[in-house]
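User: Hi! I'm working on a homework problem where we have to compare a predicted structure to a textbook description. Could you give me the structure for the chain below?
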Amino acid sequence: MKRRAFLASLLASSVPTARAAGFPVVLPGRRLEFPRDHGSHPDFRNEWWYVTGVVNDRDGRELGVQVTFFRNRPGVAESGSSRFTPRQLVFAHAAIADPAVGRLLHDQRAERAAFDIAGADTANTRAWVRDWSLALDDDVYVARIAARGFSIDARFRSVSQPLLQGDGGYSRKGPEAEHASYYYSRPQLDVSATITVDGRRREVTGRAWLDHEWSSAYMAEEAVGWDWIGINLDDGGALMAFRMRDRNGGAVWSGGSQRDASGALTVFDAQSVRFTPRRTWTSPRTSIRYAVAFDVVAGDGTYSVVPSMDDQELDSLASTGTVYWEGAVKLLRDGRQVGRGYLELTGYGGTLRI
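Assistant: Happy to help. Predicted structure tokens:
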């Protein structure tokens, strides 16, 4: 626990502005190139590879699955020559949302990127923390997670080209141009996985969504967190929408995109996306109150976001130093399901620091 607390303190201490700390700034005009940009970008402050999916076992029972790897550059003591110098930190979260259980099953890892214990390759997607890993092999992401009480052995096969978010991969997150990330998604991933919980194996199939983002100044000063959805539409399309939220529940910035089944892309500007909370849930463990159901306007579409279960809170204080809600949801339009995916809620228990 002391080691994890040390890593979390390094993450929390990395709060000066990107320019002041010497991190590269995200600006428009950079062209994303693959496979290079599937890999790590270690000069930037923060980066993540985020896989979320909704699957069914052979009996038709539905599960949510999350596998996430984070890379952080603390930007402190980088001139040291010791291999113990924490130039890069790697964190990982894994979770299973099973309505039959009624709460999120989750675990986490945290290590310095040293001695091959943890790391993130620059040439292509490969991130690992000890025996947890996520790697891209051709068009298939392979995840291997051996967690406390459960394991995930999954293959996520891409069936389409990367979806570049924002302006060709430059995704604005606030009123200043540098409040942004380089961001692309891989929606409609074809999932084939074995999930084991307390020794019971379940073969599952379904659809997943991968987000890869890197940034040095992700949030504006007035933002406390965000609400985000990534939805695989039942017709083969994909919908992403987010809002950066202030302490009063208003939107500092919003955005998103929709790609239809034919591949046509619509990018939403800040005025085209609205999140309206419809129901809240209070965690019995942290007493944090989350808005877990929303009406979302994205362009000319109006949707309802409904969770598969309320208790999908993930306590990552021992790794990334925060508590957030990450859960499987259904997307409804005019009362009819049109997609499944994930909702992420951050900053509800206090201002998020990344």
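For your comparison, note the following. The mean pLDDT is 91. The chain has one domain: 2-345. Good luck with the assignment!
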